Amino acid sequence: MLNQTVKTLAGFVVSAGLFSGAAFAGGHGAQAEVLHWWTSGGEAAALKVLKDDFAKNGGEWKDMPVAGGGGDAAMQTLKARVVAGDPPTAAQIKGPSIQAWDDEGVVGPPYHVDEVAKAENWDSLLSSQVANHMKCDGFTKYCAAPVNIHRIDWFWANKKVLDANGISMPTSWDEFNAAARKLQSAGIIPLAHGSQPWQDATVFEAVALGIGGNDFYKKVFVDADMSAMSSPTMIKVFDQMRTLKGFTDEGSPGRDWNVATGMVMEGKAAFQIMGDWAKGEFTNAGMKPGIDFYCLPTPSDHGYLYNVDSFIFYSMDGQSKIKGQKLLGSLMMGKNFQKVFNLYKGSIPARLDVPMDEFDMCAKGSAADLNYSAMTGGLQPSFAHGMTLSLATKGAIQDVVTEHFNSNMSSKEAAKRMADAVQDTL
Asked: What mean pLDDT, rounded, does the chain reach?
């Protein structure tokens, strides 16, 4: 299972064959109700690319946005729809949740999008790891389509603020702590953060990867190893989280992620730790990397935390909805769509054969780092963004992380509570 083992992603460095054209030509009569949580400026601009493509191909799009950056609210809405026997045509979803829904018998057979995948040869266009995330029926048939690959472990920083204070982008957590203290002394908020559970977890996994290393991350967030969770290394991770808490401002609790990004963009804060969808906010505002803002991975030993945004296609009655699913799948995997969508979104294409020429320095660096990490054991699925572990286990870890971050709980107690909470979910 993908939530138990991280498979080699060497396929990322192998060039794929050229896209031979859509298997689903023309979408007259195609209908699609699409559930998603992309509501911020950069996200909405990226999604508009898909909406416009769908309309140009004769499809009728019904939008169902559910606000909330981490997707938790969207997943609750989706669950209610599926349980009521009225799933949307397509829904944004990630990781093992795809296979979990298939286990409930609401995805297939038949797996209509698999017909498109076979005709368009998706297996040659995707790495084996990304492809397996998209497959149901024992990882043999496509039931979802990927639109991108996000890197999670990023520092974003306001260039003017850092330059004015003589600060370089940090390459270790000690360097970051020193820079943050200097900024704080100058009256600047060091770390823009929205203390919502998923955002706390996003920062936590980046810290765990950096302080514990790649093997430690895998033991905790892929293997759910109890001894690693309660280890002295985990205590050090919680210690760094407590330090980071001291660099946030009083308005942090409950703040949306894009508001925190806006604080960095406006120079009210220096840094944000967030996935590369944050870059979509910068670029949507006309800001450029290296000129207006800095991007650099958070410190680690060539680790890379990834998340694949994808859409699942549930079992449907009615030819117009089935036609809509096939058209959506084909468009999502289109070569030009994958380029344009990801230029807006801040991520990199899931397709292997999309040229990176038009992408910025952050995206090019991300693609190069991904290739290297895939070959050296640093490529790891993001627990905070649903790419590993069950939802129950993810929730157990996230709850303890947020409680620790927003209280005086000791790091030792937090590590113990996390191990105990995870044990109860297994």
From this structure: 91
